[in-house]
Amino acid sequence: MNIRWFTAALLGLLSGCVSVNPMALDKKSTSLDLGSKSVVLMTFDLSRDDSRYVPLPTFINVKNLGAAKTSDALHFRVNRKDDVLAASSDDDLYAISMALEPGRYRLLSVGGSAAAFPFVGSFLVPLFMDFMVPAHTVTYVGHVKAHLRPRQEGEFRAGPMIPLIDQAATGMSTGTFDVVVSDSSAEDIPHFRTMFPALGDTPVADVPLPAFDRPRVQRLRDASSAIAPDEASDTP
Prior knowledge:
The chain contains 5 helices and 10 strands; from the N terminus they run αβββαβββββαβαβα. The protein is of the alpha+beta class. The strands form 2 sheets. Strands 1, 4, 5, 8, 9 and 10 form a 6-stranded mixed β-sheet that branches. A 4-stranded antiparallel β-sheet has the order 3-2-6-7.
């Protein structure tokens, strides 16, 4: 992993130096404006087994594949207080809602941290899944489940190796993510409507993301030694 990029990006996002967008929906709003931007919905489930270092997502990265600058990525803040759809001691389900202009996008990654005294580790879940955003619509793109497990030799790491002690102690440098995408619209969309009054009875299109392509992600990691939101060479 490109440690310099990861560290700069993560610190920038957490410190506010990088522009981070709020979620499109919140629990207080009662109206929805689809005039210039559409809304993309998904649920994100991040888990691991038997550890007090529970990974918590703090941002999601998306790239507009039609943007003039292919290096630009959009960052959306994930807030456990506001965005958790269902919670448990070690496994939270997050309601993600992103306001995006019409076009073709790539869901790049979800990043965050795992902290418990005395260590703090950082991670990035690489996704690289393409999707379309039609104009003036609300679209559900599926349920993404990422599970952190010990990595085998050669598998991409859940996080950078440095700082050595923190990353190893929290399992971020010694772990990897298994990712599964499913269509849980029958359960998720009613939950979104209950959680966010602004959604009301607005029609929601069901267009799930493609399956997670682990070999593709592994090839990118092996080729570039980086999972970065400005990955421009990976264009199918």
